[in-house]
Amino acid sequence: MNALKPLLSRALLVLTCLGSLALIGCRSDFPDPNAKGPAMDVSTAQRNIQQAYVALEERLNRGQITPEQRDEFIVNYAKSFTEHLNFANVSPTKAWRYADVLKVAREWEKSAELYEIAVKAAPNPDRRVNDSLQLARVYAELGKIDQAIKTVESVFDVGVKDKAPILMATLYEIIPAAEGKGKEVQLAELLEKTIDQHAQTVVEPNLPQGQLFLSARPRHMRRAWEKAISLYSNAGRPDLARRAIQRMEVSLGKFATT
């Protein structure tokens, strides 16, 4: 019976994934991780998961599925890929790819281990920033809030051209995973610091992505300020919230259009 447990576990995982597919009505849209063929490559797994997510977002926007159905499917879909990836002797330069798949599958502990390897092996500032921010998000999911905060702050030393992801990841990924765990004041303070990082960011204004960043910067900064103020308030510190409102006015005033 013990010998059958791994097979039963895989079968249950596949059935769960296929059940989600049937519920969503899109079974033929996504590559089957269990199909016969060459050994699964982590880059292929990443690409397939991303394509599935994009397709699911389109169905969500059309009202065909709920956010809960989308999330349930994508988690189970990622888990089915982890069954076919070889995690033994992962190259440090590819560790972030494996960590990404594990993160989507919500296998937080394994994902953290590989992101830690990826950060140490990062070949350039862009890779270090992105892998560090994802590591911080996983730490937050694990309830390691102090480590998450320190990890975000560890990339504040990068050049102004590499700071763009810091606020976005903190506001939209790390804070949602970290709040409600007793560190609201510290998280608000972190958000304020990342707002400053966002303000320092330099992009190429003649490129489309640079123009998009510049046009969206005030909006994301305002959302971050509003979240920081909310965190202070939820922590029972209206005094800190009031002071943050004053700092927000000064901060956003620097980017006001005339």
Quick structural summary:
The protein is built from eleven helices and no strands.
Give your account of this protein's structure.
With 258 residues, the chain is mainly alpha-helical. The chain has 11 helices and no strands. The N and C termini lie far apart (73 Å). The N terminus is likely disordered.
Low-confidence stretches: 1-28
Q: Terminal Cα separation, in Å? A: 73 Å
Structural class: mainly alpha
Helix content: over 70%
Mean pLDDT: 88
Largest sheet: none
Strand residues, percent: under 5%
Shape: globular
- Written as H for each helix and E for each strand, in order along the chain, the element string is HHHHHHHHHHH
Beta strands, count: 0
Rg, alpha carbons: 21 Å
The helix count comes to: 11
Q: Work out the oligomeric state of the chains in this entry.
A: single chain
Ordered list of secondary-structure elements with their pairings:
Blueprint: H1 5-24, H2 42-61, H3 67-82, H4 95-104, H5 108-121, H6 125-141, H7 145-153, H8 164-178, H9 184-200, H10 208-234, H11 238-253
Structure characteristics:
single chain; 258 residues; mainly alpha; 0% strand
